[in-house]
Every structure is written in C-alpha cells, then in structure tokens.
Amino acid sequence: MNRDIVYGLADTVLMKKPHACKTNNWEVLRLGADIRLKCMGCGRIVMMPRAKFTHNFKKILTKADDPVNGKNEFYVGKENIVQASLKRANE
C-alpha cells in the first residue's frame, strides 16, 4: 500500500476520487489520527481518518517548500499553518 510514502504538513497530494468541484488536488493542513485537507479547487476544508486517507491517497504532487504552490490562491504555507503547542502553561 502507501505506507512507505512520507507526506508532510503543507504538501499537495493527489487523491483517487475528485472533490465535487472536479479537483482532486488537496493540501495537507493537519497530521495526526485524523488528517485535515483543503481542496485546492474551491478551498473547502475536510477532515478524514488516517486509514481512509491512506486508502484514497494516490501520490504527492508538490512538497511544502516547492515554489509552484505559491501560484495557487488557496495554498497556505507551512509557516502560516497554526500548530498546537504541546508545552504546558506553567512551564
């Protein structure tokens, strides 16, 4: 399966089936047990379980630092994606 492929935050991936807007390019916004994706055609954000994502995942189109991503109006750079802080408030 796709277990050996390493995808990361802000990568653009190709899924097997297209979104309702006829685009199957997605940007990865969150990684974890659930994966948050943003459609690069219409900007819609969806979450899906990792198991479903790995089943529907086809290939990586562009990595996070690729300058081609800047041309898409819905792309959010890796430095602009809000990430949860794991530090405690009293530390």
From TrEMBL:
Q: Which InterPro entries match?
A: DUF951
Protein's recorded name: DUF951 domain-containing protein
State the species of origin.
Lactobacillus xylocopicola
Taxon lineage:
Bacteria, Bacillati, Bacillota, Bacilli, Lactobacillales
